[in-house]
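Subject: Protein entry, chain in single-letter code together with its fold tokens

Area: Proteins and the way their chains fold up in space.

Attached in line: The record itself begins immediately under this heading.
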Amino acid sequence: MFLLPSKVGSQHTRMYMAMYHSYQWNKMIQRLILHIQL
């Protein structure tokens, strides 16, 4: 991933990190739902 030493670059990094965190949360929540269903 190409990072720019500027506001735009940091904004893109923040967006990417937020997307990654939400993806991890979705995986965890899906796992919890599967455990509850079983």
User: Anything to note?
Assistant: The mean pLDDT is 82. The helical segments are 7-37.
